[in-house]
Design brief:
The chain is mainly alpha-helical. It has a single domain, classed as Alpha-Beta Barrel (TIM Barrel), CATH 3.20.20.140. The protein has eight helices and three strands. α2 runs parallel beside α3. The radius of gyration is 17 Å and the shape is globular. The N and C termini lie far apart (53 Å).
Length: 196
């Protein structure tokens, strides 16, 4: 499934743009994000999360917050942490954590595949629109990664699959990072008069 030719060049360009955009993570309570969205005059970015409707993990964002974020012009940067996108991994991880101290067990991994991550990207796009969806690989903050998304060098394949599923190059570019400058510009526009 390796992309080639001009199409591959476009996909690689999108992937490179994604890797240039830095993100900052803030892990907050379930009530903090909606309160921040409601209070802020500027659009917000929620990073290093996924979709709670698909896996009920404390770091994932619920549908109501996703809709509010999109309505406010913000972006949800989805991560591919295995326990965020696989209920099996989340349950296994929680069980392992409970047993590890008492039994001295080693660690292992249930394989999560590239296509599970893509299901999350498509769910977020359906819930919020592509203008409010982005990538937050979180490769510096997770110990287990999906098979096929071991690092950002795998993004060309990710984008190739999205294009095969009907995403446009423009959609992929927005997912890869073009949404972030828009939000940053809008936030700066709100902040400038407040700084005076």
């Amino acid at each position: 499934m390796s992309p080639s030719g001009a199409w591959a060049s476009s996909v690689r360009s999108i992937a490179n743009e994604s890797s240039r955009h830095a993100h900052r993570s803030r892990h907050t309570s379930r009530s903090t994000a909606p309160a921040s969205i409601e209070t802020s005059r500027a659009p917000l970015v929620i990073t290093d999360s996924s979709c709670r409707a698909l896996v009920d993990h404390p770091h994932n964002v619920d549908d109501e917050t996703m809709r509010a974020l999109a309505d406010a012009g913000g972006v949800l940067m989805l991560t591919f942490v295995s326990s965020f996108i696989s209920a099996e991994c989340a349950n296994w991880d929680a069980d392992l954590r409970q047993k590890a101290v008492s039994r001295g067990m080693g660690t292992g991994n249930l394989d999560v595949m590239l296509f599970r991550a893509i299901d999350y990207l498509e769910y977020a796009r359906e819930m919020m629109g592509v203008e409010s969806t982005g990538l937050a690989g979180d490769y510096d903050g997770m110990s287990e990664v999906p098979v096929g998304l071991e690092d950002v060098s795998c993004y060309p394949v990710l984008f190739a699959v999205l294009l095969e599923r009907g995403w446009s190059l423009t959609d992929c570019a927005k997912l890869a990072g073009r949404n972030i400058p828009r939000v940053t510009h809008e936030a700066e526009s709100v902040a400038e008069p407040l700084a005076r």
